[in-house]
Amino acid sequence: LATMLRFLIADDNAAYCAVLCQMIESRPDWSVVAEANDGAQAVRLAAQFAPDVVLIDVNMPVMNGIVAIQRIKHVVPWARAIAFSGYDDEEFHEASLRAGADCYLRKEDLDLENLSRLIATFFSSCEV
Length: 128
Prior knowledge:
Layout: E1 5-10, H1 14-25, E2 30-36, H2 39-49, E3 53-57, H3 65-75, E4 80-85, H4 90-99, E5 103-106, H5 112-122
Parallel strand pairs: 1-2, 1-3, 3-4, 4-5
């Protein structure tokens, strides 16, 4: 990728947000443009910063991540949304995808290797 990929992180757990931030910033071609600690803030920040990728926890206060994904996809339709949760819950998974998430991961599977693989799939220059 020639350009910098811009990320929005949304999670109400500040420590986990920091971990995700560090992971993303460890790649020279990735940057975190905004962090949200609830779904409503995630929607506002997505509209403000128009990120390429939104990493969003489905279980958050004020507005849950599933509703937030729907609204983010409305304001930034090209953004890729990666929903995640600490729970291995089929309902969350299906609801996230219905809301417009491009993918759903359990928190324990959200590491640099998996994220890099997903991003490569999302932004491959020659899509089939």
